[in-house]
User: Fold this.
Amino acid sequence: MNNLLARRRLGFTLIELLVVIAIIALLISVLLPSLNRARAASKTTVCLSNMKNLSLAADLYANDHHDAYPLSRSHGGFKQGGWIKLLKPYAGSEALYRCPADESDNWFEEGKSVEGTKRLNSYATNVYMTPKQHPPRGSPDPRPLYGFTHRTMIPTAQGTVYLGEWRETTGDEVPEDHIHADRWKPGLLGVPESQPKDELAIGRHVGKRENYAFADSHAETRRFDETFFYDEAQQKLVRDLWDPAFRSRRENKEGGQP
Assistant:
């Protein structure tokens, strides 16, 4: 009889088993969000490191090319494949071009994809670092657009965005290799040509932030409105870390200069 009772005590009753399962389920529900946050934070860190290394690669490229940044595909660098290919000898790894938080489903695969039909990059350069173009006739600001093609042309490198994150794509949609930050300002009709969300991966990372690399080769995680903010109520551009000349133009305007 005593041996029978001893054998019974070695096992679990149904109630005890259910209690153990409930405790495990509770622990999972508590730990899972923390694990997801840790995983997301890790992806943000890797992405930030990628962008910093790409901006350092651009710096090395400029050292070898008379201080000039690598051109984008549609601004003189088409034959060379744009900055994506031009930086490969300096970047060292193609993995740097892809953010682990980028959930696009149309990535280029060597030997399986036709070049130009699939996604190569999570990142894109700032359009202001492309060759100079003249504004449309009748523009309220007649000064040439862009043209900050060399490092020495940028007044505040530590405060000027060089690389941003392109939004997710799917199917046959292929991202450009540069971001049209100039189109976010109200144009001749009083409205922007495009919205930042049309190109940027706004809110991709923890805290609804994105990663940015700057012209001095450092990288930061910021909210988009910390890099660009247009006050609709006052119809005033308050912040623009994409246009290298924004600060000087604002200071000249406030000082009464044309």
About this structure: Residues 47-254 form one domain. The CA atoms of residues 157 and 215 lie 5 Å apart. The chain has a mean pLDDT of 83.
